[in-house]
Amino acid sequence: MDWKPDFSSETPLYIQIKDFITNKISLGEWAVGTKIPSQRALAELFNVNRSTVVSALNDLMAEGLLEGNTKGGTKVINNTWNLLAASPPPDWSSYVQAGTYYPNQPAIQHINRAEFQEGIIRLGTGELSPDLLPSEQMKQIFEKLSAKPFSLGYEEPKGNRHLREQVVEYLRDLHIQTSPSNILIVSGALQGLQLISMGLLPRGASILLEKPSYLYSVHVFQSNAMKLIGVPMDVEGIQTSLISRYKKGYNASLLYTIPSFHNPTGCLMPESRRQELMKVCADEGLPIIEDDVYRELWFDDPPPLPLKARDPNALVLYLGSLSKSLSPGLRIGWVVAPEPVIERLADIKMQFDYGSSSLSQRAAAEWMESGLYQQHVTQIREHLKRKRDLTLQLLNTYFLGIATWSVPSGGFYIWIRLTVDVPMQMLFDRAYKAGILLNPGSIYDRNAGSFLRISYAYAKMHELEWGISKLADLVKEISISAV
Amino acid sequence: MDWKPDFSSETPLYIQIKDFITNKISLGEWAVGTKIPSQRALAELFNVNRSTVVSALNDLMAEGLLEGNTKGGTKVINNTWNLLAASPPPDWSSYVQAGTYYPNQPAIQHINRAEFQEGIIRLGTGELSPDLLPSEQMKQIFEKLSAKPFSLGYEEPKGNRHLREQVVEYLRDLHIQTSPSNILIVSGALQGLQLISMGLLPRGASILLEKPSYLYSVHVFQSNAMKLIGVPMDVEGIQTSLISRYKKGYNASLLYTIPSFHNPTGCLMPESRRQELMKVCADEGLPIIEDDVYRELWFDDPPPLPLKARDPNALVLYLGSLSKSLSPGLRIGWVVAPEPVIERLADIKMQFDYGSSSLSQRAAAEWMESGLYQQHVTQIREHLKRKRDLTLQLLNTYFLGIATWSVPSGGFYIWIRLTVDVPMQMLFDRAYKAGILLNPGSIYDRNAGSFLRISYAYAKMHELEWGISKLADLVKEISISAV
Ligand SMILES: Cc1ncc(COP(=O)(O)O)c(C=O)c1O
Ligand SMILES: Cc1ncc(COP(=O)(O)O)c(C=O)c1O
């Protein structure tokens, strides 16, 4: 909301506020059933005293437009037009609750909103900082695009042909042999997961995955009545010795894994573990989703070859994306899979959104074909490595004795465990008040209440410095007062 | 498949083909369970005699890689690696069948594939022809974009702020008063429908809609176990006198309508019918999805104001899109709705694909802000009108006495009913052989077997001329031979 009362006007502030709210209600922007922001939030938004807000709300309650409840919440219960209508207007809140798709976890809803607040320091964000995104080179790409014939129509079901050819070339370097007909272009790897969930699995299916995992942070599978079954990890990744037991115990249909620079732990699965994983899944006939979106972001050595590069039995559905290494805003990723799978997923994608943005697809193809993508990634590796080093140094300075963590060899994340007693919700709230946004571990594993996902990708150097030292202060404060 | 055998090589053609297929199988591109193309299709693809293909396939069957069935279909049943594996590889075909999302209707799958065949005349396609898409002006937009600061990160949950502001301005001209917080940017109107289906309705819900309707051509609601209940139309659109009865009889949760230049009938709902519709829905407390993607494409007079422009009770969820008037490849549309609804849908969109392409969003904002969009639409109206006129003239020349149709005052479509007896599948196949792609009416209403959706939007003038006269020939041929 951008509106503020006019402080120079002769109309009293509370009347201006009352009129503003009445207007929002009568336009249907705040439909009947809407819970309006708290008095405190409104006072902040409008830059007025809380008592001014209270006066406005009291009037609106008296007029029968709003209703307060004992918990201090206020709801729209009527609008000026209703009095004329024969029956009550739709109760949108009940519609919102009826939908089958799960809402985001409250912590994530909070984070999604807060991320766009100005000045906030984002210590957990899974995204490169804006200054690492190649805005200048993107202009070159625009220039190249404007020199080429350009079609603006719907694209082929599997995605722009030229982009798929570029992806084939790119994958060849990773020792994945495939062809354009085995590739589906998606609007980010997340959409690939969504399509797999709706296209390949029945309701009630079980999916094995690392615990903790990124996949717990979205409801792609759960919203289709599927179950996520977490398998414990060790320093090398998912414990392959447990898979056979879990597969049988839960009648699992798929295994989801992030072998390279796991989100949130940063873990890199070594060659030997990859071989074991492929063997046990081949023995069990258990297909794999390999989520490889962080692969390019290695610091000293490239990670071992993807699982998909050693997949004679076509066990692996492979996911890649430009989001982490180039630009999340492009919304371009890919699925590599056997042809009947790709055809099924492409058919659903046509019913979802008729394909990804052709602008983005052509820009992506241009990045890959021109070699600018590889150049860019080389630079990003260096930058990220420097930010990782700084972050580790800061942790060593401020967190020694109150937390433990491991050292990632690529990707965005450090998974740190607080070894002192700190209620995470309290830490999150205090940090938020101090202008720091955190990603609590419980987002990625309900039982990881003492963990935090720290990301060195988004925050600037000085933000990392200030933020991590401030965070350590908060941890110490809270843990002392808790004793 | 781009591969062709090397006709100058000393290796016999059937061996080359055998090697090619073996390779595809062992790479997992044709995984176990894949139904491979028919002998005839392979012969065409490879440019060889069918007997050459048969030799190759026979060898592969003898080696245990393929299996034929009595209907002439051939399936991959094994691969060279399997013999080593402890258990059989995943049967991807059974995965494909297990998924909950409905596949496209076979006719649509066929159309989706055939649309990208070179030289085919598309008489039913719901898309502007490439020469009506503003490729040149798009270059100007690229130039403007490359002169501006450009962020490549994930966008806000509701979509790029600046674009939402432009949409607010744009909607003001349609007498829809709203604000950026009541708008969600989506990857086309289709995605808006998908989000509504998953976000606002329980499994088992019923949706009223015009019969026929575009909505029957996708499985957005049915895949969530919802039912579409068709309400008959007359020349003014959905028959409002029936709504109350249908609502009660089916306990309907929503009504979906395309009041302006309905797909597939071309029907324009006049002012009086709009008022009746709003009245009956207000009386019944029945919310409406207003799909207004064709609004801009009027020929003589603009259509009456949207339902959303007269919506004091916040009954209407409004859908708009740039696909039909500017570029489908942009994949940009919008939902306008009460705030709790928009927040719910935005939250799901974040779990679907983390928002639409920021490239597309910024390009869309630029189109709207610069005024180029309105200029472009003015031109499109003229072009389309000319194509409509030509098409009507052609129908009058060739279809008089064998079909009836109505005259659309905007949009893309003429809904024609064949008055002679013609099995539609046969007509579709014959037309396809002659290089013409049709959209049979049954896609939009199972009982509309004698209808065709003719679109004058995609085919070029000379294609319309040749295509429609050829189509009339085919209709006459088939109907005579049927007698
Ligand atoms: C492991 C993993 N997979 C997929 C995604 C989604 O990425 P995209 O932007 O390609 O949808 C993310 C982003 O957070 C991720 O961490
Ligand atoms: C009535 C109607 N609504 C929605 C759509 C989908 O359009 P978009 O490209 O905006 O998703 C179409 C396209 O065929 C349509 O005809």
From TrEMBL, chains A, B:
PROSITE patterns: HTH_GNTR. PANTHER family: HTH-TYPE TRANSCRIPTIONAL REGULATORY PROTEIN GABR (PTHR46577), TRANSCRIPTIONAL REGULATORY PROTEIN (PTHR46577:SF2). InterPro entries: Aminotransferase_I/II_large, HTH_trans_reg/aminotransferase, PyrdxlP-dep_Trfase, PyrdxlP-dep_Trfase_major, PyrdxlP-dep_Trfase_small, Tscrpt_reg_HTH_GntR, WH-like_DNA-bd_sf, WH_DNA-bd_sf. This is PLP-dependent aminotransferase family protein. Keywords: Aminotransferase, DNA-binding, Membrane, Pyridoxal phosphate, Transcription, Transcription regulation, Transferase, Transmembrane, Transmembrane helix. Gene3D superfamilies: Aspartate Aminotransferase, domain 1 (3.90.1150.10), Type I PLP-dependent aspartate aminotransferase-like (Major domain) (3.40.640.10), Winged helix-like DNA-binding domain superfamily/Winged helix DNA-binding domain (1.10.10.10). In the C-terminal section; belongs to the class-I pyridoxal-phosphate-dependent aminotransferase family. Residues 11-79 form the HTH gntR-type domain. Its cofactor is pyridoxal 5'-phosphate. The keyword Cell division does not apply. CDD domains: AAT_like, WHTH_GntR. One of its GO terms (molecular function) is DNA-binding transcription factor activity. It comes from the Bacteria. The chain crosses the membrane at residues 395-416.
